[in-house]
Amino acid sequence: MSDATLRPEGMLPLTPAVFHILLALADSEKHGYSIMQEVTRITNGAVQMGPGTLYGTLKRMLETRLIEETDERPDPQMDDERRRYYRLTSFGERVMHAELDRLSVLLNAAQSKRLMGRT
Amino acid sequence: MNPTPQTRWIAFSERVYRVLLLLYPADYRREYGWLMVQLFRDVCRQRYHQQGRIGIALWWCRTVFDLALTVIEQRRKVRLMISKATFVHFAGFMLVLGGAFSGLAAFSQLQPDDHFTYHGLYQVLILLWAPGTLFVGLGCVGLALSYESIFWAKWTLYLCGVGSLVMTAGMFATFLNESLWNLWFIGALLHISGLTAFGLRHAFKPVLPCFRGLPLQMALGWVIIGLGILRTDSQTTNNLLSFLMFIGTGLVWLAIGQAIHRQRRQAEPAIA
After folding, report:
1. How far is Cα A62 from Cα A111, in angstroms, rounded to an integer?
2. Tens of pLDDT along chain A (119 residues)?
3. β-strands A30-31, A82-88: how paired?
4. CB contacts, 8 Å: B20 with chain A
5. Domains of chain A by range and CATH?
6. Residues of chain A positioned with their CB less than 8 A from the CB of B74
7. Cα separation of A32 and A24, whole Å?
8. Among A1, B10, B151, B250, which residue carries the largest CB count within 10 Å?
9. How many CB atoms lie within 10 A of CB B105?
10. In this complex, which of A33, A50, A78 lies closest to B66 when CB atoms are compared?
C-alpha cells in the first residue's frame, strides 16, 4: 500500500510522544539526540524523552510509515560518530497536519468558551 | 593521557547503561541498542557540562524510570507477536484437526432413533464434536489474524471463529443443563453468518489459496439442509440430512485447512 492511499484520520489522536517527534522533524531530518533536543526546545523543557521512549516511539513510527530512515553519517556539529537520521514521510506530514487541525478545532472551542489563560 | 573526572563519570555511566540494556528483547537491542547508548552518552556529556555530577545523577533518575517503562512495553510486544505468530502459523493445522473431528462426529447423526440421547459408538462419536468445533474456531481466529489487513476477511472469519467457540461452549453447557443447548444454536448461527458473509465476498475476491466458491457453497448447504431438517417429519431423512450437513462442514474445513497448512509450509523456507 502506498503512502497516498493511507488515511491520516485512522492514526488520530496521536500520542504526545509521536506528535512531538513529528513536530521536531517537520523542518528537517534529524538524528536521535537532535530530535530529543528539539522536543525539549519546542515544549519549553516540559518534555524530556529518555532513550527508551524516544527509540521505542521511533520504531513504532517507522512501522506505521510516519517517518523513514535516511542514512547513517556523522553530525559535523558534534563528533565523528555515525548517527542514524530520520525524516517525515509524506504520510507523516499529512498525519501531523490532520492532528494540528484536530487540535485547532478544540482550541477554538476552548477559546469560544473563554477557557484560555485561566492558569 | 589521564582520564578527566568528566570522562570517568561518563564512561562509568555508559558501562552501567550497556549492562541495563540487556533487559530489552535481543532483536530490539540489536537494532536500537547502540543508538540508545550513543544518545545516553550525548546527554551525559551535556548534563555534566551544565550541572556536573548532579546533572548526570538527575539524568540517571530519568533514565531508570524510562528504562523500567519501556522494557515492559518492548517485552510485552514480543510476547504478543509470538502468540499471534503461533496462532497464524498453526491456523491450517487446527482447521485440519477441527475438520477431521467434525467429520468423524458427523457419523453420530446416523444413529437410527432420535438424537436426544446417544448410545455406544454414537456416544463416542458425538463427543468428538466438541474438539471439532474448538479447533475449527481456533483455526478461523488464526486465519482472521493472518488476513488482518483485509477488513472483510478478518471480521467474517472472526465471526466464524467466535461462533464455533460458542458452539463448543454450548456443548459443554448442555452436559450441565440440557436447556442450555440454545447456546450451541446461537454459536451455529454466528458461525453460519460469518461463513456466509465470508463465502459471498470470497467468491468474487478470493483470499484463500484455493476453493474460490467452496465457503459459500458450505454456507448455503447449511441453510438448505437446515431448512430441510425443519420441514421433514421423517426421522431417517432428518438423520441423513444432519449427517450430510456435518460431514460436509468437516470435509470443507479439512480441505481448506490442508491447503493453508501446505501453503504456510511452502512459504517457510522462503521466509527463513
Report:
1. 35
2. 556 567 888 888 999 999 999 999 999 999 999 999 999 999 998 888 999 999 999 999 999 999 999 988 888 888 778 999 999 999 999 999 999 999 999 999 998 988 877 66
3. antiparallel
4. none
5. 11-112 (1.10.10.10)
6. 52, 56
7. 11
8. B250
9. 24
10. A50
